[in-house]
Amino acid sequence: MLERIQVLICGGTGCMSSHSKEIKQAFEEELTNLGIKDEVGLVLTGCFGLCERGPVIVIYPDETFYAHVKVSDVKIICEEHLLKGRHIDRLLVKNPLDRNKIKQMSQLTFYSKQKRIALRNCGQINPLDIDEYIARDGYLALGEALTKMTPDQVIKEVLDSGLKGRGGGGFLTGLKWQFAAQSVSDKKYVICNADEGDPGAFMDRAILEGDPHSILEAMALCGYAIGSDQGYIYVRAEYPVAVERLEHAILQAKEYQLLGDSIFGTDFSFNIDIRLGAGAFVCGEETALIKSIEGFRGMPVLKPPFPAKKGLWGYPTNVNNVETLANIPVIFLKGADYFKSIGTENSTGTKVFALGGKINNTGLVEVPMGTTLREVVYDIGGGIPNKRKFKAIQTGGPSGGCITEKDLDTPIDFDNLKKLGSMMGSGGMIVMDEDNCMVDVARFYLEFTVEESCGKCTPCREGTKQMLDILNRICDGDGTLKDIDELEKLAHMIQKTSLCGLGQTAPNPVLSTIKHFRDEYIAHVVDKACPAGVCAELTHFVIDDGCIGCTKCAKNCPVNAISGWPKQIHMIDDELCIKCGACKKACPVGAITSIPSIRGEAV
Ligand SMILES: Cc1cc2nc3c(=O)[nH]c(=O)nc-3n(C[C@H](O)[C@H](O)[C@H](O)COP(=O)(O)O)c2cc1C
Ligand code: SF4
Ligand code: SF4
Ligand code: SF4
Ligand code: FES
């Protein structure tokens, strides 16, 4: 029987952790009970992007978007929606502008400004079914290239598209393929870098989970272009769903003879194996990654020679990021000119960002290069929650910097973000509001890089630790003005003398917060105050006369430090207060303020 309805259930890691697998099982049982199992297609897809509203399901043909679905909602969805065609109102998402319920996925502003190329199949197909990928022109690009194009023509198409690497460096992909092709050797390798270690980033994971075949197809295309018959996907073991789907996809592709010997009846052979990483951030750096695959400790080595000349086991190797590769089949299916028509002159195509922090719609977004940061934060991201004020956006993760309100209208591309003192990085985008302390933010990123430094070279190993000591001093109220100068001096030295990108970029968050928020650093060292009320040693919470006695603060205090009768002014017991700031956030009338203090004593 022909299925009249398709229920797509998000099977991305985010929704799976909120029981989307159990939701699918509940659908199977309920549809059997109702006797309509044959009429309804059930598919566990990849991530839809709006992870904050997960578990998400989308029902076709009317494209109904249901958010925060629970196992207990399945019965009513089946009985009301699938049988009688009535929407379940409470599971629909509200339009933030007029508070009306939105029925169709395409009407959500979160999606209307996006353009999905790398994520084209995520949330659309069953990633475990190669036929669904093929039905959407999967492996067509590989077939056409192998049977109608020379390797040089393949490289030219990628070069003409202007595609730049999405793994952080932004190097022209076609040029990289050309270098590897020009290296003369009887053995060459293709590596897909799926290490993805930036805190909060999950673009690559989503692509691997939602569309694994697109990566296999792109790697085979690269193998043909550079003259390689072996590829490796280096993926962190912390991504078990991605690994499972990749393993399954490789088996299916082999079964269909789309990997292995004589692909498409040609003399081109290509195999792909998976190598698991243990989750060290530095192993995402290509030379450290290569060392790790070779079985050594993942430590970067000096470049040149670049991997295109001397890479895995000394042979020419092309390393590309997952998102870079996900764009490749589209360049062949739609042409380099189509790809180039999207984005800006020097940054073609789209970019996927993992939007997080103080933003209403956290999740994955893919926008054409040239989209402004304001559009991403307000139109797609839905703005800042709880009527708080935007303060900054951090792009590029621990290697990037923060961008402030005055630059929000900047079109996003590789060059513009660099000009603003930040960088594209791999696509992490963290939004901060007035409750974020920027010294504390710098400290957070530096703690990460200190932890992740491989220790091979002194400037990074020792210098970042010294910077962290200074930041800790400043946050504790023991800093001096000289410390800020010292931070800048150390930062420039580490940038110039570190061996790899980790050390070279580790000081960026510190430098950019000093540049844009020097007043906050000065408040910490001179006034001994943390204006955002985050640094515990420098913050003292008080309740003023504006208190209406709603009791919300007391209910939210984790240590019962707040007392007071309903409708009367409340009080904070300083001895008990652990300076968590939960009361300030909970107060509906802004009656709680943080005031300067020295080591917890109000001044
Ligand atoms: C510390 C560090 C971590 C990195 N982590 C990643 C990563 O997780 N994924 C990635 O694709 N590239 C990462 N890179 C960049 C890679 O070295 C390399 O440039 C990239 O994989 C090349 O692919 P692309 O040209 O497609 O961007 C990292 C670089 C550094 C310095
Ligand atoms: S810069 Fe840091 S991570 Fe890179 S090699 Fe040196 S110590 Fe290791
Ligand atoms: S800052 Fe935290 S611990 Fe202190 S009174 Fe408020 S909620 Fe309680
Ligand atoms: S939340 Fe604000 S208004 Fe309510 S009791 Fe606490 S201080 Fe007073
Ligand atoms: S994981 Fe389900 S929407 Fe992203």
TrEMBL record:
<dbReference type="InterPro" id="IPR017900">
    <property type="entry name" value="4Fe4S_Fe_S_CS"/>
</dbReference>
<dbReference type="Pfam" id="PF10589">
    <property type="entry name" value="NADH_4Fe-4S"/>
</dbReference>
<dbReference type="InterPro" id="IPR011538">
    <property type="entry name" value="Nuo51_FMN-bd"/>
</dbReference>
<feature type="domain" description="4Fe-4S ferredoxin-type">
    <location>
        <begin position="539"/>
        <end position="567"/>
    </location>
</feature>
<keyword id="KW-0408">Iron</keyword>
<dbReference type="Pfam" id="PF10531">
    <property type="entry name" value="SLBB"/>
</dbReference>
<dbReference type="Pfam" id="PF14697">
    <property type="entry name" value="Fer4_21"/>
</dbReference>
<dbReference type="GO" id="GO:0046872">
    <property type="term" value="F:metal ion binding"/>
</dbReference>
<dbReference type="InterPro" id="IPR036249">
    <property type="entry name" value="Thioredoxin-like_sf"/>
</dbReference>
<dbReference type="InterPro" id="IPR001949">
    <property type="entry name" value="NADH-UbQ_OxRdtase_51kDa_CS"/>
</dbReference>
<dbReference type="Pfam" id="PF01512">
    <property type="entry name" value="Complex1_51K"/>
</dbReference>
<dbReference type="GO" id="GO:0008137">
    <property type="term" value="F:NADH dehydrogenase (ubiquinone) activity"/>
</dbReference>
<dbReference type="InterPro" id="IPR037225">
    <property type="entry name" value="Nuo51_FMN-bd_sf"/>
</dbReference>
<keyword id="KW-0479">Metal-binding</keyword>
<dbReference type="GO" id="GO:0010181">
    <property type="term" value="F:FMN binding"/>
</dbReference>
<dbReference type="InterPro" id="IPR019554">
    <property type="entry name" value="Soluble_ligand-bd"/>
</dbReference>
<dbReference type="InterPro" id="IPR017896">
    <property type="entry name" value="4Fe4S_Fe-S-bd"/>
</dbReference>
<keyword id="KW-0004">4Fe-4S</keyword>
<dbReference type="InterPro" id="IPR037207">
    <property type="entry name" value="Nuop51_4Fe4S-bd_sf"/>
</dbReference>
<protein>
    <submittedName>
        <fullName>NADH dehydrogenase</fullName>
    </submittedName>
</protein>
<comment type="similarity">
    <text>Belongs to the complex I 51 kDa subunit family.</text>
</comment>
<dbReference type="InterPro" id="IPR019575">
    <property type="entry name" value="Nuop51_4Fe4S-bd"/>
</dbReference>
<keyword id="KW-0411">Iron-sulfur</keyword>
<dbReference type="GO" id="GO:0051539">
    <property type="term" value="F:4 iron, 4 sulfur cluster binding"/>
</dbReference>
<feature type="domain" description="4Fe-4S ferredoxin-type">
    <location>
        <begin position="568"/>
        <end position="597"/>
    </location>
</feature>
<dbReference type="Pfam" id="PF01257">
    <property type="entry name" value="2Fe-2S_thioredx"/>
</dbReference>
